[in-house]
Amino acid sequence: MPEVKSMFREVLPKQGQLSVEDVPTMVLCKPKLLPLKSVTLEKLEKMQQDAQEIIKQQELALKEQQPQPPERAE
Amino acid sequence: MEVRVSMEPLFLAWSSCRRRRFQRCADICSQLLSESPCDQAAWSLKTRALTEMVYIDEVEVDQEGIADMMLDESSIAQVARPGTSLRLPGTSQGSAPTPAVRPMTQSGRPITGFVRPSTLSGRPETMEQAIRTPRTARPVTSASGRFVRLGTASMLTNPDGPFINLSRLNLAKYAKRPNLSKTLFEYIFHLENDVKNALDLAALATEQAQFKDWWWKVQLGKCYYRLGLHREAEKQFRSALTHQEFVDTYLYLAKVYQRLDQPITALNVFKQGLDHFPAEVTLLTGIARIHEEMNNMTSATEYYKEVLKQDNTHVEAIACIGSNHFYSDQPEIALRFYRRLLQMGVFNCQLYNNLGLCCFYAQQYDMTLSSFERALALVSSDEEQADIWYNLGHIAVGIGDLTLAYQCFKLALAFNNNHGEAYNNLAVLELRKGRIEQAKAFLQTAASLSPHMYEPHFNFAMLSDKVGDLQSSYMAAQKSEDAFPEHVDTQQILKNLRQHFSTL
């Protein structure tokens, strides 16, 4: 501004960029989109689960057939 | 007297098999066989029905056991050239998302939008890591635990023992009868998982067919693949292709090359296949998957888009493009892809979780929490529940409710105590409360649980730097640099520390 007379000459940098100091902060892990499952994978998991169920049931049945043999030994 | 009019039993069995009521079909066939044990039609039908019950598309199945991964002899070079190996995902050029925006899996790949059996576990670097990788109740050492388990399970369901006693079978006799041998082979291969016997049968049968039947060659290739004889498998598939061009054969062949860690050759195979079967969806998907595994997201997305042009209901393509948009800062476009999946009838907790996240980051706050509520209502395992609470924690951080965030991350840990990300985020929250020791402990846990993530290492470096423990800070920063070499803040810390040390 030509009218204003000031004691100090203003400094307007013609070169360089405005810089803001970047303070490093702690980082959070990012949100995780969950991947969808393929049909094959779902079938595999289902079969595995079913198989485990069956095994569990058979083990239970076995246990009922043999009611604690070690106690009888005592 | 009541006269019961019923269908011819064999026809009924056929009909149930066609309607995919395999148990019923098998039951009827068993009855027929108990009346006339030599009924070949019933026998063959029963084998088919039993096989169908446990049938899995062999193209999709690819599970490397730990032994396969660690004692692998097929690699030619320890350090592959950039862009030629699936095992060094960091070597791709450009276009790869940084871990600063897209979380990584243990193998160092960005997380994908879709899991296939083969993407379940990344290739671990060390034995220790290999053992620690979460595997659901599968034996650690067996080459393919899942196959073994399925085989035993099918036997357990039969109280009278297996339907066919393989050890008593005269394979040579069956190999001469093409009408029985194919069903028998599939039975042995899929249900019994007895690859050795299956291989014997296939070898005899292909001899019977004067080495001219492509089907038997493909089956031989499958057996060799399962036995880990990849070069033999390759030969069989190539030979089968000379007899008959077939999409499946190309897929199997590409699978062999992927296992041999030759993604470029696999891509060539897919392209040859595309010459014979232009715009075939499965081939295009295969190409896209390889690009994705090599961290080349732009090409992968292009191919997935190509897939969608042919088949606009392809779940895998939609999910992958959606997740790619989400992690390239376009959640509103990702939201459209996931909404499309919802319209198509996909209805599970993963989808609702993704919808919730997309809604939140696309500033559609009204839908966010209801999506997450649905996701929580649909969970089937503790791991899924943990992941959903973890994401909810992010929403809470986003709206500034740190108490809720704290509780969410705690819940995530309650459901899955090995959730490294949740530990890291919890540590950050603890530090805000000024509890340095607690934060430190959480960060150390996170770093040991998932050493592939850079965040816990970096945070630990920052924290140690602040409290003046420069040595630990330096070590943690180095680990962070290993996980994410381009991270500017890590570089800064390392530079400062080096200056410090040199002045001492």
Automatic annotation (TrEMBL), chain A:
UniProt protein name: BBSome-interacting protein 1
Gene Ontology annotations of biological process type: cilium assembly; receptor localization to non-motile cilium
GO CC annotations, alphabetized: BBSome
Species this chain originates from: Carassius auratus
UniProt-listed Pfam families: BBIP10
TrEMBL record, chain B:
GO annotation, cellular component aspect: BBSome; ciliary basal body; non-motile cilium
Keywords: TPR repeat
GO biological process, one term: non-motile cilium assembly
Any Pfam family matching the protein: TPR_8
SUPFAM superfamilies, A to Z: TPR-like
Keyword Ubl conjugation carried by entry: no
Renumbered residue ranges of the record's region Disordered: 85-138
UniProt xrefs under InterPro entries: BBS8, TPR-like_helical_dom_sf, TPR_rpt
Coiled-coil ranges per UniProt: none
Tagged with keyword Coiled coil: no
Sequence ranges of the TPR repeats: 386-419, 420-453
CDD domains to which the protein is assigned, alphabetical: TTC8_N
Top-level lineage group: Eukaryota
Entry protein name: Tetratricopeptide repeat protein 8
Native organism: Carassius auratus (Goldfish)
